[in-house]
Amino acid sequence: MIIVHSFQVPFFWTDGVGPYIIEDGNRRDLPSGTTRKDIKWFKRPYPGGKNEAFKIDLDWEVQGSDNKKYSVALYEDSWSCNCYSYKFSGNKRSCKHIEEIKSSYLS
User: Fold this and answer.
1) Own/partner pairs for 50-53, CB < 8 Å, 24+ apart?
2) Which residues are CB-neighbours of 20 under 8 A, at least 6 positions away?
3) What is the pLDDT of residue 55?
4) Of 93, 77, 75, 76, which Cα lies nearest the Cα of 85?
5) Is 10 helix (H, G, I), strand (E, B) or coil?
6) Distance (Å, rounded) from C-alpha 79 to C-alpha 97?
7) Which of 41, 39, 42, 43 lies closest to 31, judged by CA?
């Protein structure tokens, strides 16, 4: 069995020299008699992929206009708020509390 770790599915081919695969743009010669069934491919994660150590998980407490305190949270790229406006915002998925945090801290 030939184990391949690459970003893309390896391309298997046989020429006058023998069987080989193209693995992330590079030729890798294989032992004679190797077939496509002998190759086990594992997808390598992209280096720019999300790393668990760098996940964003922030929250703020915002004073509402009715003297209530609301919680605004940012997890990865998703915002949330526990106010009524956010709950009923439908596809907009925002409220004045989220917009306040975005303009205050993230501009």
Assistant:
1) 50/76
2) 12, 13, 14, 27, 28, 29, 30
3) 73
4) 93
5) coil
6) 10
7) 39
pLDDT in tens, 75-102: 877 889 998 888 887 767 789 999 999 9
Q: In what order do the strands lie in the sheet with 19-23?
A: 11-14, 19-23, 26-29
Report field, pTM of the whole predicted structure over 0.90? no
Tokens 């077939």: give the residue: 35
* CA-wise closest residue to 19 among 42, 4, 45: 4
Token pair, residue 8, equals 């893309």
Here the tokens at position 84 are 């009524």
The DSSP result for 24-85, as a single string, is TTEEEE--TT--GGGEEEEEPPPTTSPPGGG--EEEEEEE-TTS-EEEEEEETTEEEE-SHH
